[in-house]
Amino acid sequence: MTHAATHGTTPAKGRRWPHLRRVLTIAFFVLVAVLLVSQARTIEWGEVFDVVRGYPAATLALAAVLAAASHLIYTTYDLLGRAWTRHGLPVRQVIAITFVSYAFNLNLGSLVGGFAFRYRLYSRFGLGNDVTTRVLGLSLVTNWLGYLVLAGGVFAWRIITPPPGWTLGAAALQALGVALLAAAAAYLLMCGWARRRDWTLRGHTLTLPPLRLALLQLLVSTANWLMIAAVLFVLLQQKVDYGSVLGTLLLAAIAGVVTHVPAGLGVLEAVFIALLGSSRPTGELLGALIAYRGLYYLAPLVLATGIYLVLEARARKPARERQLPVS
Q1: Do residues 60 and 291 make contact, with C-beta atoms less than 8 angstroms apart?
Q2: Which pairing describes strands 2-4 and 204-207: parallel, antiparallel, or unpaired?
């Protein structure tokens, strides 16, 4: 989606934005921390672990299958990038690299997983940084395009309602939903009908994919977000309606990005308790979230670590032995 361009002088406003974002991030993180501490004092932790131990095997198995399906869907993001850039790495190699990157991204943050692992592994197998940047850019847009549509719809139609006392009220959340839908629509319209295909932003050139590829981005991304919500829906044993689970997940996702906390530790729990705590016991919610982290975050991380070691071992072999093209 992006490739490097010549850097120019950064305007004063551009230099102010990182400082403002840092202040907002700290403020939000402090708010979440205060909420977590206040909630932790009222939680019956014995109840939480009882919930985890009491899961039927069939429920855990179904949640594990859905989690695996979500990770598999995510690997198609880089396959779209492969088709767009027409690089020569085999499909199985791209799937392995994307899975490893996603698992580390979830647990250690996007800079380590989403960026560092992709650049290292793709370069180890001969892909140039410019092509990797385009693949990574397309993958990032794919992930958030589905989010824009789903979150926009959920917020605009008020499927979830912020609890009393939240700074972001129902009307503001609805307005945010409309803005998200407008952003997604603008991207699709530009991909389909914009005459200008290249745009420069902060020293990087953004290249618009064709509309057909953009629609595939929307399809796979939407499917992935719906699948993640399905994992939580199953772990909550269908005691909370799916729309509420999806809406809460989408709100928690953006909160996790704002705070830059690896794996969204504490943020996910805080948002779920705030939005769903009136309908389900806190211990039940936390038990489901602990099981979710185990199935969706930790188990894939263990597998990804093993795959990463295999990839590194294969990358040390000569290109002819690996039967991979070298760019």
Answers
A1: yes
A2: antiparallel
Contact yes or no for 293/263 (Cβ under 8 A): yes
From CA 156, how far away is CA 170, in angstroms rounded?
9
What does DSSP assign to residue 10? P
- Greatest extent of the chain over all pairs of C-alpha atoms, in Å: 63
- 């981005």: which residue's tokens? 217
- pLDDT tens per residue across span 272-313: 988 898 889 888 898 899 899 889 988 898 899 899 989 988
Find all residues with CB under 8 Å of 257, minimum gap 6, and list them.
Answer: none
**Structural contact between residues 82 and 89, judged by C-beta atoms closer than 8 angstroms:** yes
CA dist., res. 48 & res. 166, Å (int): 26
The reported pTM is 0.80
Q: Residue 13 CB: number of other CB atoms within 10 A? A: 8
Helix (H, G, I), strand (E, B) or coil at 139: helix
Edge-to-edge order in the sheet of strand 2-4: 2-4, 204-207, 198-201
Question: What is the DSSP secondary structure assignment for residue 55, as one 8-state letter?
Answer: -
Question: Do the beta carbons of residue 95 and residue 303 sit within 8 Å?
Answer: no
